[in-house]
């Protein structure tokens, strides 16, 4: 036992992953609304503590502030 909480469960999705492999494109790009992509995103969000979302929001704030100064 690792004695760590489970962050999430990534569902097995052979169809989505096989199609992504055949296209040589990550399933996060080719099928972003699938359960596997959503689960992967949620685990990543938990691992990063939401830092990616905070950076995205910061970028939006900076961009809108820049737009107002023009």
Task: Give structural notes.
By secondary structure, the chain is mainly alpha-helical. The protein contains 4 helices and no strands. The longest helix is centred in the C-terminal third of the chain and has 19 residues, at 51-69. The relative contact order is 0.12. The mean pLDDT is 84.
Task: Reconstruct the topology from this structure.
Layout: H1 14-23, H2 27-30, H3 35-48, H4 51-69
Sheet with the most strands, sense and barrel status: none
If helices are DSSP runs of H or I spanning 4 or more residues, what is the number of helices?
Answer: 4
Please state roughly what percent of the residues sit in beta strands, choosing from under 5%, 5-15%, 15-25%, 25-35%, 35-45% or over 45%.
Answer: under 5%
Assembly category = single chain
- Principal-axes shape call: flat
Radius of gyration: 17 Å
The helix-and-strand class reads mainly alpha
In helices, the fraction of residues equals 55-70%
End-to-end gap:
57 Å
Q: Can you tag this structure with a few keywords?
A:
mainly alpha, 67% helix, 70 residues, flat
Tell me briefly what this model is.
This protein is mostly helical. It has four helices and no strands.
